[in-house]
Amino acid sequence: MRIRRLSDWLPTTNKEVKLREWDELDVILFSGDAYVDHPSFGPAVIGRILESYGLRVAIVPQPSVTDNLQDFTKLGTPRLFFGVTAGCMDSMVSNYTASKRRRDKDAYTPNGDKGFRPDYATTVYTKILKEKFPDVPVLIGGIEASLRRVTHYDYWSDKLMPSILESSGADMLVYGMGEQPLREVVELLQKGVPFSSLKTIKQTAVLLDEDEKIPKNKNWEDVEIVSHQTCLKDKKAFASNFKIIEQESNKLYARRIFQDIGNKRLMINPPFPTMTEEEIDASFDLPFTRMPHPKYNKRGPIPAYEMIKFSINVHRGCFGGCSFCTISAHQGKFIASRSQESVLKEVDQVTEMEDFKGYLSDIGGPSANMYKMKGKIQSICDKCVAPSCISPVICSNLDTSHKPLTKLYQAVDAHPKVKKSFIGSGIRHDMLVPEFNKNADVEELDAYTEEVMTKHVSGRLKVAPEHTSDPVLKLMRKPSFTYFHKFKERFDKINKKKKLNLQLIPYFISSHPACEPEDMANLAVETKDMGFQLEQVQDFTPTPMTVATVIYYSGYHPYTLKETKTPKTRQEKLDQHKFFFWYKKENRQWIKDKLTKVGRTDLLRQLLPKDDSWRKNKPQKTKNTFDDAVTFKPKASKSKHKKHKKKRRR
């Protein structure tokens, strides 16, 4: 193992800057996360990208905002600009649960300690920098900035907010993955172009003054969305904006978006094309130490790092387009896949880590089984405006071959120092069902499923059908629950054939738009009948830039502008959860009354049979609480494999 020096990390203090014998910094980054120099941590990626362009870059992780603000001035004034990000998560999602309770832990802070990241971190950091250095440009990015680039609903304050450019006072916003726009920003600045003149860079957004001339680009078409002021007055108008925003975000040749905000004009330039294999390889091949900065050695482990420490990310993007998910809004719906050579190079690095024991925790991505998948005929994709490639059906132009991924798994497992590689990322089980994935090779789908079950799972395979109600699933852009039944049949067949004794663990969402209490009762009944004791039911959390959040706030579906009911009050959400605690005495009478009132005694008979047979197989008691998730203890698995847990990504 290589012995690391302090100078192997990006500098975080003046002492570390001097170790590199620098007398000036070009860019100073501020992040809401602790500094982990790893390709899965966005702030580190941006720092390394800028460094690769020959810039002198420093990073200030989790600057204090409660003292004399010396963290913001200690490194002086950068030559080019300040970069600001809230970190790998929106700061409000990081700080609060779905019930708006402050979290007990922060996964991106040593020891999981809370209180090191302010609410609305991007805005807080930027305002401080603009006050301290009014003449220095501030460029914001990361998921918080990316998903708040237009008028958006903020669940935690329960109000509409304007573009984060307006709230923060930043000079430029980079949305999505930052490698491509940052390259162009740096190239132009190095040529002497003033930052204030950088108006036509793809995948960036800026605010123009009302009397400022709109920059011309003969290759772009423009589209106007409803102003922020109109959105404040008219929820239906706000909802109508989202269809345009989502479609333009997922086009290969998108239009430039304009929105009026008071006496200013928001301009969002079209995104860059999907990164090529060569480009994404170059990003992952940068000289990451893959470790937290040594400054944290005595503060305890960083939970988010421990989770992905021995994992490999093989692609970006997701073409699922789920209504509740922000992945495609940030990473895009088109898949950018790494080469097998780049992945194996990273595997080499992981196996050389001092505490590596031979087990890779994940070979995956946003959805594990989308590696190398793309359109068969590119010209068809070039014209596509659909937000999802697999809803309501799998596009006939989508190549869903799992062969490249199966081959990659086998290449990783052939490494002499790898004992076993696990798939910890979520698998799209519906794509493995021939009845849904009608154009796929059945033998190939079964081969992939068998490969995963026999070699890459430790006791439990986790999938996310999300719901059992077809109307709710349709709104979610998820397939019918029928296909989960079909997948379970294939899972059980392989399980029996190979004598694996694996458990299938389904995940579900409650309180989603269009979900009624009887839908949750049906979900409880159907999963109970299938023999499941649910491990996790996650409550829907409205986050910016999703269809479901627009519906939650406005009451209208942005594509149809039809009214759509959503559980919003705390009581409504608690009621939906009660069906999962059907075995608790205090809930039984409520369930009886509720289902009788809506005329669903059929569900009542199934959920609470008169002979009280439910007592024979009662799940272990858990705290009857409402939060991000309701947890149930599954039956003990007979498998002797060590369990490898991984936090579910959304």
The geometry reads as globular
Q: N- to C-terminal separation?
A: 34 Å
What topology, given as strand order, has the largest sheet?
3-1-4-5-8-9-12-11-10
Question: Over the alpha carbons, how many angstroms does the gyration radius reach?
Answer: 25 Å
**Structural class, from secondary structure content?**
alpha/beta
Structure annotation, total helices:
23
Question: Could you tell me the mean pLDDT?
Answer: 91
Please give the largest β-sheet: 9 strands, mixed
- Beta-strand share of residues: 5-15%
Give the helix level as a range of percent: 25-40%
- Using DSSP, what is the number of strands? 25
How many separate structural domains? 3
Poorly predicted runs? 611-626, 629-650
Task: Explain what you see.
By secondary structure, the chain is α/β, with parallel strands linked by helices. The protein has three domains: 6-268, no CATH class; 309-424, Transcription Regulator spoIIAA; 457-644, Transcription Regulator spoIIAA. Helices cover 33% and strands 14% of the residues. The protein contains 23 helices and 25 strands. The strands form eight sheets. It has a nine-stranded mixed β-sheet, with helices on both faces. A hairpin with a 4-residue loop joins β6 (152-154) and β7 (159-161). The longest helix is centred in the last third of the chain and has 16 residues, at 482-497. The relative contact order is 0.09.
Topology of this protein?
Elements: H1 14-19, E1 27-31, E2 36-37, H2 42-52, E3 57-61, E4 81-85, H3 91-95, H4 121-132, E5 138-141, H5 142-147, E6 152-154, E7 159-161, H6 164-168, E8 172-174, H7 179-190, E9 204-209, E10 222-224, H8 228-233, H9 235-249, E11 256-261, E12 264-268, H10 277-284, E13 291-292, H11 303-308, E14 311-313, E15 315-316, H12 327-331, E16 336-337, H13 340-351, E17 359-360, E18 362-364, E19 374-375, H14 378-383, E20 398-399, H15 403-413, E21 420-421, H16 442-455, E22 460-466, H17 470-476, H18 482-497, E23 503-510, H19 517-529, E24 536-539, H20 547-554, H21 570-578, H22 585-597, H23 601-607, E25 629-631
Parallel strand pairs: 1-3, 1-4, 4-5, 5-8, 10-11, 14-18, 17-21, 22-23, 23-24
Antiparallel strand pairs: 2-13, 6-7, 8-9, 9-12, 11-12, 15-16, 19-20, 24-25
Helix pairs in contact: 2-7, 9-20, 16-18, 19-21, 19-23
